[in-house]
């Protein structure tokens, strides 16, 4: 692993135009093109392609096309998780999704962020913060999870919510920004 990739995965500033990262991105995009063209009756091929694309995929995972990510390898998905249509995962930092999770359509997990300093942004520097979703969490359609957020197990995030900070286990949260509304 080269220095820019190491920096990217550890949350330090990095440059996405690094040749190793460009090659990793190109590989992931080629696999995504194949994945997103699969037919409904090609579940075995979808499973094979996800296994090749992602860092780890548990048994019984279902991800409906279209699915988008940057690199694939930093993403892990636990067994029995179901991800609906049009999911986007910007995976410049690790994204860990637990077992038996449910994602509505259009969910976005955005680990990517940019420096506040305009000169660093102009120079092309980026960074990421990991995202973690606990077992049996349910993210409603259109929910957005921002960089560095952890969502606890059994937590429900309402449709259209923007999760900007950690949510504990066993709660219902919604809004923009998402706020805990009650315990389960």
How would you summarize what this structure contains?
The chain has about 180 residues and is an alpha/beta fold. The protein has one domain (about 5-184): 3 Solenoid (UDP N-Acetylglucosamine Acyltransferase, domain 1), CATH 2.160.10.10.
Overview of the structural elements:
The protein is built from four helices and 20 strands. With 184 residues, it is an alpha/beta fold. It has a single domain (3-183), classed as UDP N-Acetylglucosamine Acyltransferase, domain 1 (3 Solenoid), CATH 2.160.10. A seven-stranded mixed β-sheet has the order 3-6-9-14-17-19-20, with no helix packed on it. The protein is globular and about 45 Å long. It starts with a helix and ends with a strand.
Shape: globular
CATH topology: UDP N-Acetylglucosamine Acyltransferase, domain 1
Topology pattern, helix = H, strand = E: HEHHEEEEEEEEEEHEEEEEEEEE
Helix content: 10-25%
Using DSSP, what is the number of strands? 20
The tally of domains stands at 1
Separate helix tally = 4
> Roughly how many Å apart are the termini?
43 Å
Average pLDDT metric: 97
Highest-level CATH class: Mainly Beta
Strand percentage lies at 25-35%
CATH architecture grouping: 3 Solenoid
Q: Stretches where pLDDT falls below 50 for ≥5 residues?
A: none
Instruction: Give the structural class.
Output: alpha/beta
CATH superfamily: Hexapeptide repeat proteins
Q: What value does the Rg take, in angstroms?
A: 16 Å
Largest sheet: 7 strands, mixed
How are the strands of the biggest sheet laid out side by side?
Answer: 3-6-9-14-17-19-20
